[in-house]
Structures are given as C-alpha cells and as structure tokens.
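Side project, low priority. Logging it here so it doesn't get lost.
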Amino acid sequence: MSTSPNVLISGFGIAASVYASTLLRAYPNATITIVERDPEMRLTGASVDIRSSAVEIIKWMGCESEIRDKTTKEEGVEMVDENGKSFAKLMATGNSEVQSITSEYEIFRGDLARIFIRPIKDKVNMIFNETVESYVQDEDSVTVTFANSQEVKSYDLLVAADGLGSRIRGMMLGTKPSKQVHDEGAYASFFVIEKDLLNGSKLAQWYSTTGGRAIFLRPDPDPRGRTRGHFMNTAWASDVEGRAKINAALRGGNETYMQYVEKEFANVGWLAPEVLKAMRETTDFYCSKFAQVRSPRIQDGRVVLLGDAGFACPGIGTSLAIMGGHVLAGELLLHNNDVKSATKAYEELMLPFAKAQQSTMGDYAMQVLNPQTAWGLWIRNTILWALTKFRVDRIGVWVAGKLGVKEPRLKMPAYPWPALKAE
C-alpha cells in the first residue's frame, strides 16, 4: 500500500465513519470509497451508548463535547407496573468510568452518525444503491466486482462494515452469513412517538408483563415534544416455536412485524394502546433481533471485518465499533503501510476483547430481565425494588469508584498519529 492508501468500505454506519475519519487522520491523502446498499444514508435508529475505551477515543477525536450536547439527557430508568406506578429507579451514575444501564453518553444512532460523518462526507467517495458481489485478492491488491454496476475495481484494502448479516463475512469464511449469528432470543421494534408520553420526565420507563414482553419509553430531547417507543419480546432457546414465529415476523418486514406486535401487546395494560397507536402512525420504524456475531476470524489478508460484521454484541456494540475503527486505522499506521501485518495485528487485538465482552453479556440477560411468568416477574420486581430502596446499586457504584474499578478497557498501542493541522 502506498502512502496514499486506496480503501473500499462496504456499509456506512458508526464503524465505517469512525474508521474513515481516523484513517484520514493517519493518511490525509487516502482515497476512501464507501458503498452503501440503501439509496441514502440511514440516519435513524434507537438510542445507543458509548462505554469503555470508546469514551477515550471520542475525546481523542475531539467530538466528546458535541456528543454530550446531543445526548438524550436520559437520567435513568424507572420500572413501572401495569398501572404506571413506579417501584424502582435505576439512575445514571454521572461517572463515565463506571456506568449504569443508562450511559453518560446515551444518544440516538442517527445523531451520533451525523457527528462522525459530517467532517468526512466531502472527503470520501460515496456510492449508494450498491454492494460488493465478489472479490479476489493477491499479494498487491483486492479486486472487487460490484453487484449492480458490475464494475471491477482494485483496492489496497476491503473493509466489511456491512452489519449483522454481512455478505462479505460469508464470502471470507466460505459459509452462509447466518452461521456466525447467535440469536439471543430478544426482539425489538423502535419508533418515534410524536407526543411526550413521559410528560417532561428525563427518566425512561420500563414495563414488563408475562410472556417475556416489555414496553420501553425513552425521553427524546426534541423541543416539539416526542418520545421513543420500543416493544420487546423475549424467548428462551427451548421455545423453538416462539422464536420461529418472531423470526418469521422479522423476515416479513415492517408491516408483518407490526401485526405481530399488535397481537402480542393488545391487552397488556399500562400505556400499550397509546404506544401501539403511535407505532402505526410513525414514519420512523425499525425492528431487529438482539444477536451476537461470533466470527472465528475478522481478517483474511486484505479483507477485514469491522463493527457488527465482525463482532456484534448488544449492549456494547457501538463502543466496539468505535474501538475497531480506531484500532484498524492505527494498526495500518503502526505497520507502515503493510496491510497484511496490520490486519493481523488488528484481529489479535480486537477479537479476544470482543469475545470477552460477548461472554460477559451472556446468552440469557434479556430473558432474565424480562421473565415469562408472573412468579418470575414478582421475583425480578422484588429484587429491583430492594436494590433501589436500600440504595445497593448506588453504594456499589460508589465503592467501585473509590476502589478504582472501571469498565474493561482495550489495551491499545501508542499509535504514531500525525499532529492535527489547523483548519
């Protein structure tokens, strides 16, 4: 690879934009092409958060204050019963080193993407309505055939940032992309409610009922007065029929999934009727499963997997995407243009860390938090009530802070970044 690397990125999300931005810091004359299957950038989605070493990276990037300004301002999560009565509050810690269920950097995906994309949008080549159909690589380059145009072009590096169902991952590993996807048994819809159902509160509200069903309402700082709504269903691995039904609804698209949700939440109490009505009226609807990508490898020479394509992990996926983009650019710089050595070092650093986070998150977290039975709900609610009533959660955070306990950090080399030039 020359001192002006020529890189193709498939997919334009958080991981891709952080990588492109950081690569341009390392190589200001880099040629970066990004292909995106959608007709335009998708700047919507649920709230995401930033944790662990990703906090240090956004500070290094110089966008931490802008991200703070754009956060949802959520102060915590309030657990409510079918009558809307609160029985537990899980508050944000105010400490980015030890965060709670509500992050210090809780931000909507679209807002975060805009922050990362804005500085580079005029410095990269964007191609919409396009994907990678196939590739071949040799010692000097990777040659890509595009699906729609059928153009054939060569690059120094192909970066797959094409998400959970990454086709490039399937090509690289010689399997169906679904083989590396581990279904966690949690499924959710996300949408904008054009009304403030929280009545100005900065606390999100979480209502659970039997059958592993839950409704979340999260604050939206939009001055027009809005709320973000989520319906969630969970199913244990043993519930083969239940999982099959939900996955079929997901495959059917938005309308099919809405019909599934309407049936599941028709008579569950609380604000379900209003939230269901708002779901039907929204112009911003998205549904997905919670899943991990457990890939045995995340590189093959001049082809590399980034973000969800390589190591999706609900709960810390956005942070891993930020770390991955930073590390990949850093390793290319550290290895002085040796692509294969750089991607190998990237894999050796990122893959074990990502796998450790996936193991920590476990397979059953969402099922435990959203029980199937009334008895299970009573136990969960009693535990949460006791934890918050006697401030066990706050004391734990305080003790962790005093002991210097932090969220797991990725140990990165001291990359030789060039000094920033004044604009």
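Brief comment: Residues 395-405 have pLDDT under 50 and may be disordered.
Revisit when time allows.
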